[in-house]
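User: If only I could read backbone structure tokens as easily as an amino acid sequence. Underneath my words sits a plain record pairing an amino acid chain with its backbone structure tokens. This is the protein in question:
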Amino acid sequence: MGMEGAVARWYASTTAKSMGDFQKLARRMAGDLAPGASVLEVAPGPGYFAVELAKLGDYRVTGLDISATFVQIARANAGAAGVRVDFQRGNASRMPFADMQFDAIVCRAAFKNFTQPVAALEEMYRVLKPGGRALIIDLRRDAAWSSISEAAKGMNLGVANSVITKLTFRFMLLKRAYTKAEFLRMAQATSFRGADIREEGIGLDVRLSRLA
């Protein structure tokens, strides 16, 4: 189940304060995309990254989220920004897309929440075109708590939201996250057969490619 209602709206308002991170990631992705490329964001939440990417070129951007509230918020954000993004509701482990539909996939800060992670990876492989690539960015379970506290400080949160965020990291997110070795074993069990995984600060930067 995804976040809904007031919890989803709180998350949307909190993560909006890190808009610079979404813009930076959008520029990073755009640098590797051909004009007109089709891009899928899995679990886009409020849609900030997808909207920022759509601003940068004539890409065909799609977002798939299990939360009805997030889909509603994301569509409103795209409308307010004057860009076209196809936000849909759906499950990452059973995507409502045809085989080999997308040139690129991105999933940011959400993969650890998937109840069927291997199935989600298989679905990413299925909907990627040959030569397509997926990028998964998420928290790593063995990140130092001191580093997480520093990262929370850099999120421009108020006192109350900062406390809530740190508690969420400690008691929820870290428990769900994967180590580099764990993620690699999952990737090796899928059609990707492996992944290029780098430890970046408190997170993992996972790069997957469909070769054929």
